[in-house]
Amino acid sequence: MAASIFAAVPHSPPVAVFKLTADFREDSDSRKVNLGVGAYRTDEGQPWVLPVVKKVEQMIASDNSLNHEYLPILGLPEFRANASRIALGDDSPAIKEKRVGSVQCLGGTGALRIGAEFLRRWYNGNNNTATPVYVSTPTWENHNSVFMDAGFKDIRTYHYWDAAKRGLDLQGLLNDMEQAPEFSIFILHACAHNPTGTDPTPDQWKQIAAVMKRRSLFPFFDSAYQGFASGSLDKDAWAVRYFVSEGFELFCAQSFSKNFGLYNERVGNLTVVGKDADNVQRVLSQMEKIVRTTWSNPPSQGARIVATTLASPQLFDEWKGNVKTMADRVLLMRSELRSRLEALGTPGTWNHITEQIGMFSFTGLNPKQVEYMVKEKHIYLMASGRINMCGLTTKNLDYVAKSIHEAVTKIQ
User: Fold this and answer.
1) Cα 178 to Cα 214: distance, rounded to the nearest angstrom
2) Which residues are tagged catalytic?
3) 268 in Cβ contact with 255 (< 8 Å)
4) How far apart are CA 401 and CA 350, in angstroms?
5) d(Cα 22, Cα 16) in Å, to the nearest integer?
6) Using an 8 Å Cβ cutoff, are 103 and 287 in contact?
7) pLDDT for 143-191, tens place per residue?
8) Residue 228's pLDDT band (cuts 50, 70, 90)
9) How far apart are CA 127 and CA 83, in angstroms?
Protein backbone atom coordinates (compact mmCIF):
# COMPACT_ATOMS: atom_id res chain seq x y z
CA MET A 1 0.00 0.00 0.00
CA ALA A 2 1.34 3.43 -0.96
CA ALA A 3 2.43 5.81 1.76
CA SER A 4 0.06 8.60 2.72
CA ILE A 5 0.47 11.83 0.79
CA PHE A 6 0.59 13.45 4.25
CA ALA A 7 3.44 11.24 5.47
CA ALA A 8 5.90 14.12 5.58
CA VAL A 9 3.67 16.31 7.78
CA PRO A 10 5.39 16.81 11.15
CA HIS A 11 3.41 16.82 14.37
CA SER A 12 3.07 20.41 15.57
CA PRO A 13 3.71 21.01 19.27
CA PRO A 14 0.52 21.79 21.23
CA VAL A 15 -0.44 25.37 22.09
CA ALA A 16 1.15 25.83 25.50
CA VAL A 17 -1.77 27.35 27.39
CA PHE A 18 -4.26 24.75 26.17
CA LYS A 19 -1.81 21.92 26.88
CA LEU A 20 -1.52 23.31 30.41
CA THR A 21 -5.31 23.15 30.82
CA ALA A 22 -5.40 19.59 29.49
CA ASP A 23 -2.72 18.56 32.00
CA PHE A 24 -4.69 20.25 34.78
CA ARG A 25 -7.84 18.33 33.89
CA GLU A 26 -6.00 15.01 33.97
CA ASP A 27 -4.49 15.76 37.38
CA SER A 28 -6.34 13.90 40.15
CA ASP A 29 -4.72 15.79 43.04
CA SER A 30 -7.35 17.52 45.19
CA ARG A 31 -5.10 20.55 45.72
CA LYS A 32 -4.71 21.36 42.03
CA VAL A 33 -5.10 24.97 40.88
CA ASN A 34 -5.28 26.27 37.29
CA LEU A 35 -3.61 29.67 36.93
CA GLY A 36 -3.00 29.26 33.21
CA VAL A 37 -5.82 29.86 30.75
CA GLY A 38 -6.98 33.45 30.27
CA ALA A 39 -10.63 33.23 31.29
CA TYR A 40 -12.56 34.73 34.18
CA ARG A 41 -13.57 32.51 37.08
CA THR A 42 -15.79 33.20 40.08
CA ASP A 43 -14.63 32.75 43.66
CA GLU A 44 -16.00 29.20 43.33
CA GLY A 45 -13.62 28.65 40.41
CA GLN A 46 -16.46 28.47 37.88
CA PRO A 47 -17.08 30.26 34.55
CA TRP A 48 -19.49 33.20 34.91
CA VAL A 49 -22.20 34.06 32.42
CA LEU A 50 -22.80 37.77 32.91
CA PRO A 51 -26.36 38.48 34.12
CA VAL A 52 -26.80 41.12 31.42
CA VAL A 53 -25.76 38.58 28.78
CA LYS A 54 -28.38 36.11 30.03
CA LYS A 55 -30.99 38.83 29.89
CA VAL A 56 -30.11 39.87 26.33
CA GLU A 57 -29.97 36.26 25.14
CA GLN A 58 -33.55 35.82 26.33
CA MET A 59 -34.55 39.03 24.54
CA ILE A 60 -32.99 37.79 21.31
CA ALA A 61 -34.61 34.36 21.63
CA SER A 62 -38.08 35.90 21.99
CA ASP A 63 -37.65 38.40 19.12
CA ASN A 64 -39.67 36.92 16.27
CA SER A 65 -38.38 39.51 13.80
CA LEU A 66 -34.90 37.96 13.78
CA ASN A 67 -33.81 35.29 11.32
CA HIS A 68 -30.66 33.51 10.17
CA GLU A 69 -29.98 35.38 6.95
CA TYR A 70 -26.40 36.33 6.16
CA LEU A 71 -25.02 39.41 7.85
CA PRO A 72 -23.23 41.93 5.61
CA ILE A 73 -19.63 40.94 4.89
CA LEU A 74 -18.29 43.67 7.19
CA GLY A 75 -20.68 42.62 9.95
CA LEU A 76 -23.69 43.80 11.93
CA PRO A 77 -23.76 47.60 11.45
CA GLU A 78 -25.03 48.42 14.96
CA PHE A 79 -22.37 46.19 16.50
CA ARG A 80 -19.56 47.78 14.49
CA ALA A 81 -20.68 51.32 15.27
CA ASN A 82 -21.12 50.75 19.00
CA ALA A 83 -17.89 48.76 19.35
CA SER A 84 -15.91 51.62 17.79
CA ARG A 85 -17.80 54.12 19.94
CA ILE A 86 -16.75 52.55 23.23
CA ALA A 87 -13.15 52.33 22.00
CA LEU A 88 -12.95 55.97 20.90
CA GLY A 89 -15.51 57.61 23.21
CA ASP A 90 -18.94 59.15 22.73
CA ASP A 91 -17.47 62.56 21.97
CA SER A 92 -14.75 61.36 19.58
CA PRO A 93 -14.07 63.98 16.88
CA ALA A 94 -12.93 61.18 14.57
CA ILE A 95 -16.39 59.58 14.72
CA LYS A 96 -18.14 62.93 14.21
CA GLU A 97 -15.91 63.60 11.20
CA LYS A 98 -16.82 60.17 9.75
CA ARG A 99 -13.20 59.06 9.53
CA VAL A 100 -13.79 55.91 11.56
CA GLY A 101 -14.77 52.55 10.10
CA SER A 102 -14.86 49.02 11.42
CA VAL A 103 -15.04 45.34 10.56
CA GLN A 104 -16.76 42.68 12.67
CA CYS A 105 -14.22 39.90 13.13
CA LEU A 106 -13.85 36.47 14.69
CA GLY A 107 -12.56 37.60 18.06
CA GLY A 108 -9.56 39.77 18.71
CA THR A 109 -7.37 37.30 16.81
CA GLY A 110 -9.55 37.72 13.72
CA ALA A 111 -9.32 41.50 14.04
CA LEU A 112 -5.54 41.31 14.23
CA ARG A 113 -5.43 38.98 11.22
CA ILE A 114 -7.67 41.13 8.99
CA GLY A 115 -5.63 44.19 9.95
CA ALA A 116 -2.38 42.35 9.27
CA GLU A 117 -3.60 41.07 5.89
CA PHE A 118 -4.62 44.57 4.86
CA LEU A 119 -1.34 46.14 5.99
CA ARG A 120 0.72 43.54 4.16
CA ARG A 121 -1.17 44.28 0.93
CA TRP A 122 -1.68 48.03 1.14
CA TYR A 123 0.24 49.77 3.94
CA ASN A 124 2.39 52.64 2.70
CA GLY A 125 2.12 51.41 -0.87
CA ASN A 126 1.33 47.79 -1.60
CA ASN A 127 2.60 44.28 -0.86
CA ASN A 128 4.91 45.40 1.91
CA THR A 129 6.11 42.04 3.20
CA ALA A 130 9.44 43.59 4.22
CA THR A 131 7.94 46.30 6.43
CA PRO A 132 9.19 45.68 9.99
CA VAL A 133 6.52 44.69 12.52
CA TYR A 134 7.51 45.24 16.15
CA VAL A 135 6.06 43.31 19.10
CA SER A 136 6.90 43.81 22.77
CA THR A 137 9.27 41.56 24.72
CA PRO A 138 7.40 39.61 25.95
CA THR A 139 4.03 39.65 24.19
CA TRP A 140 1.00 37.44 23.62
CA GLU A 141 2.34 34.50 21.62
CA ASN A 142 -0.24 34.89 18.84
CA HIS A 143 1.04 38.34 17.81
CA ASN A 144 4.13 36.88 16.13
CA SER A 145 2.23 34.09 14.39
CA VAL A 146 -0.61 36.25 13.08
CA PHE A 147 1.73 38.68 11.35
CA MET A 148 4.05 35.96 10.05
CA ASP A 149 1.12 34.01 8.63
CA ALA A 150 -0.17 37.20 7.01
CA GLY A 151 3.08 37.32 5.04
CA PHE A 152 5.31 39.76 6.95
CA LYS A 153 8.93 38.64 6.78
CA ASP A 154 10.53 40.98 9.33
CA ILE A 155 9.08 40.53 12.83
CA ARG A 156 11.16 42.37 15.42
CA THR A 157 10.91 42.98 19.16
CA TYR A 158 10.99 46.13 21.25
CA HIS A 159 12.02 46.37 24.91
CA TYR A 160 9.13 46.35 27.35
CA TRP A 161 9.65 44.32 30.53
CA ASP A 162 12.46 45.15 32.93
CA ALA A 163 12.94 41.91 34.86
CA ALA A 164 15.25 43.49 37.44
CA LYS A 165 12.75 46.11 38.58
CA ARG A 166 9.71 44.07 37.54
CA GLY A 167 8.23 46.96 35.62
CA LEU A 168 8.22 48.84 32.33
CA ASP A 169 11.50 49.43 30.50
CA LEU A 170 10.40 52.79 29.13
CA GLN A 171 13.83 53.96 28.03
CA GLY A 172 14.51 50.73 26.18
CA LEU A 173 11.12 50.96 24.49
CA LEU A 174 11.67 54.57 23.40
CA ASN A 175 15.19 53.80 22.16
CA ASP A 176 13.87 50.96 20.01
CA MET A 177 11.25 53.26 18.53
CA GLU A 178 13.91 55.87 17.79
CA GLN A 179 15.98 53.24 15.97
CA ALA A 180 13.09 51.65 14.05
CA PRO A 181 12.86 52.39 10.32
CA GLU A 182 10.24 54.99 9.42
CA PHE A 183 6.76 53.56 8.79
CA SER A 184 7.46 50.47 10.90
CA ILE A 185 4.34 48.90 12.45
CA PHE A 186 4.18 48.67 16.25
CA ILE A 187 1.77 46.33 18.04
CA LEU A 188 0.71 48.08 21.25
CA HIS A 189 -1.38 46.65 24.10
CA ALA A 190 -4.12 49.20 24.82
CA CYS A 191 -4.37 48.13 28.48
CA ALA A 192 -3.61 45.17 30.74
CA HIS A 193 -0.49 44.16 28.81
CA ASN A 194 -0.41 40.41 28.19
CA PRO A 195 1.51 38.74 29.77
CA THR A 196 3.09 41.27 32.14
CA GLY A 197 0.06 43.24 33.37
CA THR A 198 2.31 46.31 33.26
CA ASP A 199 1.01 49.38 31.39
CA PRO A 200 2.58 52.75 30.63
CA THR A 201 1.18 55.69 32.59
CA PRO A 202 -0.61 58.46 30.65
CA ASP A 203 2.59 60.56 30.74
CA GLN A 204 4.59 57.63 29.42
CA TRP A 205 2.04 57.04 26.67
CA LYS A 206 2.50 60.69 25.69
CA GLN A 207 6.24 60.13 25.34
CA ILE A 208 5.61 57.01 23.26
CA ALA A 209 3.17 58.86 21.00
CA ALA A 210 5.59 61.76 20.51
CA VAL A 211 8.35 59.44 19.28
CA MET A 212 5.98 57.46 17.06
CA LYS A 213 4.65 60.64 15.46
CA ARG A 214 8.12 62.03 14.82
CA ARG A 215 9.34 58.71 13.41
CA SER A 216 6.17 58.08 11.32
CA LEU A 217 5.51 54.74 13.05
CA PHE A 218 2.11 53.06 12.71
CA PRO A 219 0.23 52.13 15.92
CA PHE A 220 -1.79 48.91 15.85
CA PHE A 221 -3.53 48.61 19.22
CA ASP A 222 -4.68 45.30 20.64
CA SER A 223 -7.54 46.06 23.06
CA ALA A 224 -8.58 42.76 24.63
CA TYR A 225 -9.52 43.92 28.13
CA GLN A 226 -11.35 47.26 27.98
CA GLY A 227 -13.25 47.73 31.24
CA PHE A 228 -11.99 44.43 32.56
CA ALA A 229 -8.60 45.85 33.53
CA SER A 230 -9.47 48.76 35.82
CA GLY A 231 -13.27 48.54 35.93
CA SER A 232 -13.48 51.75 33.87
CA LEU A 233 -14.10 51.70 30.11
CA ASP A 234 -12.72 55.20 29.73
CA LYS A 235 -9.54 54.61 31.73
CA ASP A 236 -8.74 51.44 29.80
CA ALA A 237 -9.23 53.21 26.46
CA TRP A 238 -7.12 56.25 27.38
CA ALA A 239 -4.12 55.38 25.22
CA VAL A 240 -6.14 54.69 22.07
CA ARG A 241 -8.13 57.90 22.47
CA TYR A 242 -4.99 59.94 23.10
CA PHE A 243 -3.34 58.68 19.92
CA VAL A 244 -6.49 59.56 17.95
CA SER A 245 -6.48 63.06 19.49
CA GLU A 246 -2.88 63.43 18.31
CA GLY A 247 -3.94 62.85 14.71
CA PHE A 248 -2.67 59.31 14.20
CA GLU A 249 -4.12 56.97 11.63
CA LEU A 250 -4.37 53.67 13.46
CA PHE A 251 -5.97 50.26 13.83
CA CYS A 252 -7.49 48.94 17.04
CA ALA A 253 -8.33 45.24 17.38
CA GLN A 254 -11.08 44.78 19.98
CA SER A 255 -12.13 41.59 21.73
CA PHE A 256 -15.35 41.07 23.67
CA SER A 257 -14.34 37.67 25.01
CA LYS A 258 -13.25 38.89 28.43
CA ASN A 259 -15.42 41.92 29.14
CA PHE A 260 -18.62 40.16 28.00
CA GLY A 261 -17.56 36.62 28.90
CA LEU A 262 -18.33 35.62 25.30
CA TYR A 263 -15.25 33.43 24.83
CA ASN A 264 -16.78 30.88 22.46
CA GLU A 265 -18.86 33.36 20.45
CA ARG A 266 -15.70 34.91 18.93
CA VAL A 267 -16.87 38.52 19.00
CA GLY A 268 -14.25 40.96 17.73
CA ASN A 269 -14.06 44.28 15.94
CA LEU A 270 -11.34 46.05 14.00
CA THR A 271 -11.65 49.82 14.35
CA VAL A 272 -9.97 51.84 11.61
CA VAL A 273 -9.15 55.52 12.11
CA GLY A 274 -8.09 57.39 8.97
CA LYS A 275 -7.41 60.94 7.79
CA ASP A 276 -10.81 61.42 6.15
CA ALA A 277 -14.04 59.62 5.25
CA ASP A 278 -13.00 58.79 1.68
CA ASN A 279 -9.74 57.28 2.92
CA VAL A 280 -11.58 55.03 5.41
CA GLN A 281 -14.14 53.85 2.86
CA ARG A 282 -11.40 52.78 0.47
CA VAL A 283 -9.68 50.86 3.28
CA LEU A 284 -12.96 49.13 4.20
CA SER A 285 -13.58 48.18 0.58
CA GLN A 286 -10.28 46.27 0.54
CA MET A 287 -10.95 44.71 3.93
CA GLU A 288 -14.30 43.51 2.62
CA LYS A 289 -12.44 41.57 -0.09
CA ILE A 290 -10.15 40.02 2.52
CA VAL A 291 -13.07 38.99 4.73
CA ARG A 292 -14.92 37.52 1.74
CA THR A 293 -12.14 34.98 1.16
CA THR A 294 -11.48 34.36 4.86
CA TRP A 295 -14.86 33.70 6.53
CA SER A 296 -17.17 35.41 4.02
CA ASN A 297 -19.79 36.54 6.57
CA PRO A 298 -19.49 36.77 10.37
CA PRO A 299 -21.75 35.01 12.90
CA SER A 300 -24.56 37.03 14.46
CA GLN A 301 -25.36 35.79 17.97
CA GLY A 302 -22.46 37.26 19.92
CA ALA A 303 -22.50 40.48 17.92
CA ARG A 304 -26.24 40.93 18.61
CA ILE A 305 -25.66 40.44 22.33
CA VAL A 306 -22.96 43.12 22.38
CA ALA A 307 -24.83 45.51 20.07
CA THR A 308 -28.09 45.25 22.03
CA THR A 309 -26.28 45.84 25.30
CA LEU A 310 -24.24 48.81 24.12
CA ALA A 311 -27.18 50.50 22.39
CA SER A 312 -29.46 50.50 25.47
CA PRO A 313 -28.57 52.96 28.26
CA GLN A 314 -30.09 50.65 30.88
CA LEU A 315 -28.37 47.50 29.62
CA PHE A 316 -25.14 49.41 29.10
CA ASP A 317 -25.13 50.52 32.75
CA GLU A 318 -25.90 46.98 33.88
CA TRP A 319 -23.05 45.65 31.77
CA LYS A 320 -20.60 48.18 33.22
CA GLY A 321 -21.64 46.95 36.67
CA ASN A 322 -21.01 43.34 35.65
CA VAL A 323 -17.59 44.25 34.27
CA LYS A 324 -16.70 46.11 37.45
CA THR A 325 -17.66 43.03 39.47
CA MET A 326 -15.06 41.03 37.53
CA ALA A 327 -12.41 43.74 37.71
CA ASP A 328 -12.91 44.25 41.44
CA ARG A 329 -12.50 40.53 42.17
CA VAL A 330 -9.21 40.50 40.26
CA LEU A 331 -7.99 43.58 42.16
CA LEU A 332 -8.93 41.91 45.45
CA MET A 333 -7.02 38.75 44.55
CA ARG A 334 -3.97 40.87 43.73
CA SER A 335 -3.98 42.62 47.10
CA GLU A 336 -4.66 39.38 48.99
CA LEU A 337 -1.85 37.47 47.26
CA ARG A 338 0.65 40.26 47.82
CA SER A 339 -0.26 40.60 51.50
CA ARG A 340 0.13 36.86 52.06
CA LEU A 341 3.53 36.71 50.35
CA GLU A 342 4.77 39.68 52.35
CA ALA A 343 3.41 38.20 55.60
CA LEU A 344 5.29 34.97 54.86
CA GLY A 345 8.47 36.96 54.33
CA THR A 346 8.85 35.57 50.82
CA PRO A 347 12.24 36.68 49.41
CA GLY A 348 12.11 39.55 46.93
CA THR A 349 9.65 42.37 46.44
CA TRP A 350 5.98 41.74 45.62
CA ASN A 351 4.59 45.23 45.08
CA HIS A 352 4.48 44.47 41.35
CA ILE A 353 1.53 42.13 42.01
CA THR A 354 -0.69 45.10 42.86
CA GLU A 355 0.99 47.57 40.52
CA GLN A 356 0.21 45.36 37.52
CA ILE A 357 -3.31 45.38 36.12
CA GLY A 358 -5.77 43.14 34.36
CA MET A 359 -6.16 39.39 34.23
CA PHE A 360 -2.49 38.43 34.28
CA SER A 361 0.45 38.93 36.58
CA PHE A 362 4.08 38.37 35.68
CA THR A 363 5.18 36.90 39.00
CA GLY A 364 8.92 36.83 38.39
CA LEU A 365 9.11 33.08 39.03
CA ASN A 366 11.80 31.44 36.90
CA PRO A 367 11.26 28.24 34.84
CA LYS A 368 12.66 25.95 37.56
CA GLN A 369 10.39 27.51 40.16
CA VAL A 370 7.43 27.14 37.80
CA GLU A 371 8.33 23.49 37.29
CA TYR A 372 8.34 23.01 41.07
CA MET A 373 4.91 24.66 41.32
CA VAL A 374 3.46 22.37 38.65
CA LYS A 375 5.07 19.06 39.57
CA GLU A 376 5.24 19.32 43.34
CA LYS A 377 2.32 21.59 44.16
CA HIS A 378 -0.07 20.85 41.27
CA ILE A 379 -0.42 24.58 40.57
CA TYR A 380 -0.50 25.11 36.82
CA LEU A 381 0.99 28.31 35.36
CA MET A 382 2.87 29.32 32.24
CA ALA A 383 6.61 28.66 32.02
CA SER A 384 7.17 32.43 31.85
CA GLY A 385 5.79 32.77 35.38
CA ARG A 386 2.57 34.39 34.16
CA ILE A 387 -0.48 33.62 36.27
CA ASN A 388 -4.16 34.29 35.68
CA MET A 389 -5.36 36.16 38.76
CA CYS A 390 -8.90 34.86 38.14
CA GLY A 391 -7.71 31.38 39.04
CA LEU A 392 -7.14 32.55 42.60
CA THR A 393 -10.00 32.20 45.09
CA THR A 394 -10.47 32.80 48.79
CA LYS A 395 -10.21 29.01 49.19
CA ASN A 396 -6.85 28.50 47.43
CA LEU A 397 -5.03 31.78 48.16
CA ASP A 398 -3.20 30.48 51.23
CA TYR A 399 -2.08 27.33 49.42
CA VAL A 400 -0.86 29.25 46.36
CA ALA A 401 0.97 31.85 48.46
CA LYS A 402 2.70 29.19 50.58
CA SER A 403 3.64 27.27 47.44
CA ILE A 404 5.17 30.38 45.83
CA HIS A 405 7.06 31.00 49.09
CA GLU A 406 8.43 27.44 49.02
CA ALA A 407 9.39 27.67 45.35
CA VAL A 408 11.25 30.96 45.79
CA THR A 409 12.91 29.84 49.04
CA LYS A 410 14.02 26.39 47.87
CA ILE A 411 14.90 27.05 44.24
CA GLN A 412 17.05 29.88 42.92
Assistant:
1) 9
2) 140, 222, 258
3) yes
4) 11
5) 10
6) yes
7) 999 999 999 999 999 999 998 888 899 999 999 999 999 999 999 999 9
8) confident
9) 29
